[in-house]
Structure of prephenate dehydratase:
Amino acid sequence: MTTYAYLGPQGTFAEAALRALPDAAHASWSPYATVSETLEAVRAGVCSTAVVPLENSVRGVVPATLDELASGGTGLHIAAEIEIPVTFALMARPGTTLDEVRRVRSHPHAHGQCRGWLSARLPQAQVLLSTSTAGAAREVGESPQPGDAAIAAPVAAERYGLTVLASGIGERADAVTRFVALRSAGPAPAPTGRDRSSFLLPAEEAGARTIAEILGAFSEQGVGPTWVQSWPSGNRLGSYHFFVDIDGHIEDDDVGEVVMALHRKGIAARFLGSYLRAGAGPRARVPAPRRGEEGGLSAECWLEALRSGGGVVAA
Ligand SMILES: O=C(O)C(=O)Cc1ccccc1
């Protein structure tokens, strides 16, 4: 039986992501307060798999998760990815009205997606950060202070006895967050034909190479990265680790060729896992270069437009 650790407490989006995993109904789940503690539960052997947020379609990556993956000591591989829609509600203890709200607690990614609403409706409210949305809701439920509110998933209001004062307060109704399930490094699950693979190119390996050289190793094999993130190594300005995702499985020939091509360039990529990719889209591969000029500006005209200061050009 899988034993899941997830970014808790109950009512987080991470919990919703866990629920979406195929074996969730037959697994045990334990909430942890922070991303680090969630991953530590797996490293310490208390749980087999950790579910943590990786990236949001509006606010971008979750630094705590990338920090852990980049630190090199995780010894964890991605076993699954889950994408779930995220919608936000403002909630407070029963009896509190919107006019009385003085402090709004939430996860930084939730605050970041509700800035417009907060500045329009609660411009004077103090923003307080919590380690998760449901953590913020729980703090408000337990807080004796009047005027406290939280931004969280509507389900967290029920869980912590709060009243929803406003819902759908995020900037984008279609916001999505990508979560990953991480477990101890080991052989990847068998290829399905709809897989994704993740790699970390550590700063010390990428060294003086340009990003073009690094990404060239992928495109030379016809493999287009679907996700690239540079992440500061902390050593000095300009020293980055690179996270790269590609469609395909480590067992696939072209993915294997990429790994070998990187190695020949002196870059020992760290493998972060092959797993069934979320979404049913086709495998991403490098498109053929544009040859004709049909239906658009010629490449020369486009360059000329940019050189003359035009960013937006009517075709
Ligand atoms: O705090 C949560 O509920 C999480 O799962 C992290 C998060 C917070 C805001 C948007 C997406 C994920």
